Amino acid sequence: MGTQQTDWSVNPSIPIQVSQPMIFSLGVYRFAKPNYLDTDQWYDWKDFDYRGVSGSLNDVLFDGGRDQSTRDYTRAFDIIRKLNTGIAAESLAAEKDSNKPTFQTLGVRKWLELHQASDFRKPYSVRSIGASAWDASNSDEMKLLRLLDNHCFRCHSSLRYNVFDKEAVGARRDLILLYLFAPVADSRGESPPRQHHATGKGIN
Description:
Layout: E1 4-7, E2 16-19, H1 39-48, H2 71-93, H3 103-114, H4 139-151, H5 166-171, H6 173-181
Antiparallel strand pairs: 1-2
Helix pairs in contact: 2-3
Protein backbone atom coordinates (compact mmCIF):
# COMPACT_ATOMS: atom_id res chain seq x y z
CA MET A 1 0.00 0.00 0.00
CA GLY A 2 1.53 3.32 -1.03
CA THR A 3 2.10 6.26 1.29
CA GLN A 4 1.64 9.93 0.46
CA GLN A 5 5.03 11.48 -0.24
CA THR A 6 6.34 14.67 -1.79
CA ASP A 7 8.46 14.27 -4.91
CA TRP A 8 10.80 17.10 -5.90
CA SER A 9 12.55 15.11 -8.64
CA VAL A 10 11.02 17.13 -11.51
CA ASN A 11 11.43 20.63 -10.13
CA PRO A 12 12.68 21.23 -6.57
CA SER A 13 10.52 24.36 -6.28
CA ILE A 14 7.26 22.66 -7.25
CA PRO A 15 6.30 19.79 -4.93
CA ILE A 16 4.30 17.08 -6.66
CA GLN A 17 2.27 14.70 -4.53
CA VAL A 18 2.72 11.06 -5.44
CA SER A 19 1.14 8.02 -3.89
CA GLN A 20 3.94 5.47 -3.60
CA PRO A 21 6.51 4.30 -1.07
CA MET A 22 9.55 6.57 -0.78
CA ILE A 23 12.35 5.24 -2.95
CA PHE A 24 15.63 6.88 -2.03
CA SER A 25 17.25 5.98 -5.34
CA LEU A 26 14.99 8.48 -7.14
CA GLY A 27 14.57 12.24 -7.20
CA VAL A 28 16.63 14.50 -4.95
CA TYR A 29 17.10 11.62 -2.53
CA ARG A 30 19.11 9.51 -4.92
CA PHE A 31 22.42 10.98 -3.71
CA ALA A 32 21.61 10.93 0.02
CA LYS A 33 24.18 9.04 2.07
CA PRO A 34 23.95 7.67 5.62
CA ASN A 35 26.45 8.87 8.21
CA TYR A 36 28.84 6.19 9.37
CA LEU A 37 29.50 5.45 13.04
CA ASP A 38 32.87 6.96 13.89
CA THR A 39 34.04 5.41 17.15
CA ASP A 40 37.33 7.30 16.96
CA GLN A 41 35.44 10.58 16.96
CA TRP A 42 33.33 9.45 19.89
CA TYR A 43 36.50 8.94 21.90
CA ASP A 44 37.80 12.32 20.77
CA TRP A 45 34.60 13.97 21.96
CA LYS A 46 34.80 12.17 25.29
CA ASP A 47 38.21 13.78 25.82
CA PHE A 48 37.08 17.20 24.60
CA ASP A 49 33.38 18.03 24.96
CA TYR A 50 32.33 15.32 27.37
CA ARG A 51 35.18 14.97 29.83
CA GLY A 52 32.61 14.68 32.60
CA VAL A 53 31.66 11.17 31.49
CA SER A 54 35.21 9.82 31.80
CA GLY A 55 34.34 8.43 35.22
CA SER A 56 31.26 6.64 33.89
CA LEU A 57 30.85 2.90 34.37
CA ASN A 58 30.37 2.65 30.60
CA ASP A 59 32.55 3.36 27.60
CA VAL A 60 31.45 4.97 24.31
CA LEU A 61 30.34 1.50 23.18
CA PHE A 62 27.82 1.05 25.95
CA ASP A 63 27.44 -2.72 25.65
CA GLY A 64 31.18 -3.25 25.47
CA GLY A 65 32.10 -2.10 28.94
CA ARG A 66 35.20 -0.07 29.81
CA ASP A 67 37.75 -2.85 29.34
CA GLN A 68 38.59 -2.94 25.63
CA SER A 69 40.38 -6.28 25.97
CA THR A 70 37.20 -8.20 26.85
CA ARG A 71 35.02 -10.32 24.61
CA ASP A 72 32.08 -8.02 25.37
CA TYR A 73 33.93 -5.07 23.89
CA THR A 74 35.02 -7.12 20.87
CA ARG A 75 31.42 -8.17 20.20
CA ALA A 76 30.14 -4.62 20.58
CA PHE A 77 32.80 -3.26 18.25
CA ASP A 78 32.11 -5.96 15.69
CA ILE A 79 28.50 -4.77 15.49
CA ILE A 80 29.74 -1.25 14.65
CA ARG A 81 32.06 -2.75 12.04
CA LYS A 82 29.19 -4.65 10.42
CA LEU A 83 26.98 -1.56 10.42
CA ASN A 84 29.71 0.56 8.83
CA THR A 85 30.31 -2.10 6.20
CA GLY A 86 26.66 -1.80 5.19
CA ILE A 87 26.80 2.00 5.35
CA ALA A 88 29.84 1.97 3.04
CA ALA A 89 27.88 -0.05 0.49
CA GLU A 90 24.86 2.28 0.76
CA SER A 91 27.07 5.35 0.40
CA LEU A 92 28.76 3.98 -2.71
CA ALA A 93 25.40 3.08 -4.24
CA ALA A 94 24.31 6.71 -3.82
CA GLU A 95 27.33 8.18 -5.60
CA LYS A 96 26.77 10.02 -8.87
CA ASP A 97 29.91 8.31 -10.15
CA SER A 98 31.05 5.22 -8.26
CA ASN A 99 34.53 5.71 -9.71
CA LYS A 100 34.76 9.11 -8.02
CA PRO A 101 33.61 8.56 -4.44
CA THR A 102 32.84 11.66 -2.39
CA PHE A 103 34.12 12.42 1.08
CA GLN A 104 31.19 10.64 2.76
CA THR A 105 32.19 7.35 1.13
CA LEU A 106 35.90 7.99 1.65
CA GLY A 107 35.31 8.65 5.34
CA VAL A 108 33.60 5.33 6.07
CA ARG A 109 36.13 3.50 3.90
CA LYS A 110 38.94 5.02 5.95
CA TRP A 111 37.30 3.91 9.18
CA LEU A 112 36.94 0.37 7.84
CA GLU A 113 40.55 0.37 6.66
CA LEU A 114 41.80 1.41 10.10
CA HIS A 115 39.54 -1.01 11.95
CA GLN A 116 39.58 -4.00 9.66
CA ALA A 117 41.60 -5.92 12.23
CA SER A 118 41.63 -3.48 15.15
CA ASP A 119 39.03 -2.56 17.75
CA PHE A 120 41.11 0.21 19.25
CA ARG A 121 40.90 3.97 18.89
CA LYS A 122 42.97 5.51 16.12
CA PRO A 123 44.47 9.00 16.55
CA TYR A 124 43.41 11.87 14.30
CA SER A 125 46.93 11.93 12.83
CA VAL A 126 46.25 8.74 10.82
CA ARG A 127 42.68 9.41 9.72
CA SER A 128 43.28 11.54 6.61
CA ILE A 129 41.17 11.01 3.51
CA GLY A 130 41.60 12.34 -0.01
CA ALA A 131 44.64 12.74 -2.22
CA SER A 132 46.80 14.68 0.24
CA ALA A 133 47.25 13.51 3.82
CA TRP A 134 47.79 15.69 6.84
CA ASP A 135 51.46 15.47 7.84
CA ALA A 136 51.74 13.72 11.21
CA SER A 137 55.34 14.95 11.55
CA ASN A 138 54.32 18.60 11.17
CA SER A 139 53.34 19.96 14.59
CA ASP A 140 51.50 22.96 13.13
CA GLU A 141 49.37 20.74 10.91
CA MET A 142 48.56 18.47 13.83
CA LYS A 143 47.56 21.43 16.04
CA LEU A 144 45.27 22.68 13.28
CA LEU A 145 43.81 19.24 12.64
CA ARG A 146 43.12 18.78 16.33
CA LEU A 147 41.18 22.06 16.40
CA LEU A 148 39.25 21.09 13.27
CA ASP A 149 38.58 17.65 14.74
CA ASN A 150 37.29 19.07 18.02
CA HIS A 151 35.30 22.03 16.73
CA CYS A 152 34.31 21.35 13.11
CA PHE A 153 34.07 17.61 12.50
CA ARG A 154 30.55 17.25 13.89
CA CYS A 155 29.24 19.12 10.83
CA HIS A 156 32.07 18.95 8.35
CA SER A 157 32.27 15.20 8.17
CA SER A 158 28.95 14.86 6.37
CA LEU A 159 28.21 18.41 5.12
CA ARG A 160 30.12 20.20 2.35
CA TYR A 161 33.48 18.57 3.08
CA ASN A 162 35.40 16.52 5.63
CA VAL A 163 38.02 18.19 7.83
CA PHE A 164 40.27 15.14 7.40
CA ASP A 165 40.52 15.99 3.70
CA LYS A 166 43.48 18.38 3.72
CA GLU A 167 42.90 19.63 0.18
CA ALA A 168 39.24 20.39 0.90
CA VAL A 169 40.19 22.42 3.97
CA GLY A 170 42.89 24.29 2.04
CA ALA A 171 40.45 25.13 -0.74
CA ARG A 172 38.14 26.76 1.84
CA ARG A 173 40.84 28.60 3.78
CA ASP A 174 39.50 32.10 3.09
CA LEU A 175 35.93 31.12 3.88
CA ILE A 176 36.98 29.41 7.12
CA LEU A 177 38.88 32.54 8.18
CA LEU A 178 35.86 34.66 7.34
CA TYR A 179 33.66 32.61 9.65
CA LEU A 180 36.36 32.43 12.31
CA PHE A 181 36.70 36.19 12.63
CA ALA A 182 33.11 37.18 11.91
CA PRO A 183 31.63 39.17 14.85
CA VAL A 184 28.90 37.27 16.67
CA ALA A 185 26.62 39.33 18.86
CA ASP A 186 25.29 38.00 22.14
CA SER A 187 21.73 38.44 23.45
CA ARG A 188 22.55 42.06 24.36
CA GLY A 189 23.71 42.84 20.85
CA GLU A 190 27.33 43.02 21.95
CA SER A 191 30.24 41.14 20.41
CA PRO A 192 32.19 39.20 23.07
CA PRO A 193 36.01 39.28 23.06
CA ARG A 194 37.87 36.75 20.95
CA GLN A 195 38.25 33.29 22.40
CA HIS A 196 41.63 31.71 23.04
CA HIS A 197 42.73 28.29 21.94
CA ALA A 198 44.33 25.59 24.09
CA THR A 199 47.85 27.06 23.95
CA GLY A 200 46.64 30.28 25.57
CA LYS A 201 47.34 32.41 22.49
CA GLY A 202 44.56 34.51 21.00
CA ILE A 203 43.25 33.18 17.71
CA ASN A 204 43.28 36.70 16.28
